[in-house]
Design a protein that fits this description.
Elements lengths: L1 E6 L2 E4 L4 E9 L8 E7 L6 E7 L5 E3 L7 E6 L4 E6 L8 E8 L14 E2 L3 E6 L1
Parallel strand pairs: 2-11
Antiparallel strand pairs: 1-3, 3-8, 4-5, 4-9, 5-6, 7-8, 9-10, 9-11
């Protein structure tokens, strides 16, 4: 069982930046994931896929809604994935979830289908 712990959420003004972190761990064995990614869920809306990164070579995929504003990265040595968010808007307000997948999605990172989820961290953007 992979455990994911997010941090870095909070309140930020519109136009500002925030960086989320997600530390992955597993007990009793070496962590092996194919990819990690970020999702978000705003009140009354469905969970939305934002970005994913392939653990082995750093290949990335971004949803159109965040392309150019958000950057996903990883630090393999510490089993951590990041989401750098810039030019934040009020519509970015949501609970942000980290996720990990052990197997490659059949049709590529665009169809990232995680096996594990973090508990979520709240991001609130004030206008």
């Amino acid at each position: 069982q992979v455990q994911l712990v997010e941090s870095g959420g909070g309140l930020v003004q519109a136009g500002g930046s925030l960086r989320l972190s997600c530390a992955a761990s597993v007990s009793g064995r070496t962590l092996r994931v194919y990819a990690m990614g970020w999702f978000r869920q705003a009140p009354g809306k469905e969970r939305e896929f934002l970005a994913a990164i392939k653990w082995s070579d750093g290949s990335v995929y971004y949803a159109d809604s965040v392309k150019g504003r958000f950057t996903i990265s990883r630090a393999n040595a510490v089993n951590t994935v990041y989401l750098q968010m810039t030019s934040l808007k009020s519509e970015d307000t949501a609970v942000y979830y980290c996720a990990a997948g052990e197997n490659p999605p059949r049709w590529g990172l665009r169809y990232f289908d995680p096996d594990y989820w973090g508990q979520g961290t709240q991001v609130t953007v004030s206008s």
